[in-house]
Amino acid sequence: QVQLVESGGGLVQAGGSLRLSCAASGSIFSINDMGWYRQAPGKQRELVALVISDGTTTYADSVKGRFTISRDNAKNTVYLQMNSLKPEDTAVYYCNCYVLQRLGWSLAWGQGTQVTVSS
Fold first, then answer.
1. Over the stretch 2-16, which tens digit does the pLDDT of each residue have?
2. What is the pLDDT of residues 23-78, one digit of tens each?
3. Is the separation of the CB atoms in 107 and 35 below 8 Å?
4. Burial annotation 85-109 (CB, 10 A radius, 16+ → b, else e)
5. Contacts of 74 by beta carbon, 8 Å cutoff, 6+ apart
């Protein structure tokens, strides 16, 4: 089994910054996509940012220029640096990873970390 452990969420004022981390552990042969999603109350979960194994990144339009996703392959860890935070960024943030294990590829999710941005 793969475990994803997230950290770095919290309460911050508008304009502030937070850095989320997500570390994958378990019997992992390789990780392809690593991403961050978020879900606000009453809304569907949405993609925030994605980084694939070659370093190519994708961002939601709402966070472009403010958020930066990165990964450390040696540590099986993905990060999300969030700057210029807005109240509308308030949500539970989830990381996910597309992981190769002995039995093949599977998608793993973290437990979520709350980010609250006050106005």
1. 999 999 999 999 999
2. 999 999 999 999 999 999 999 999 999 999 999 999 999 999 999 999 999 999 99
3. no
4. beeebbbbbbbbbbbeeeeeeeebe
5. none
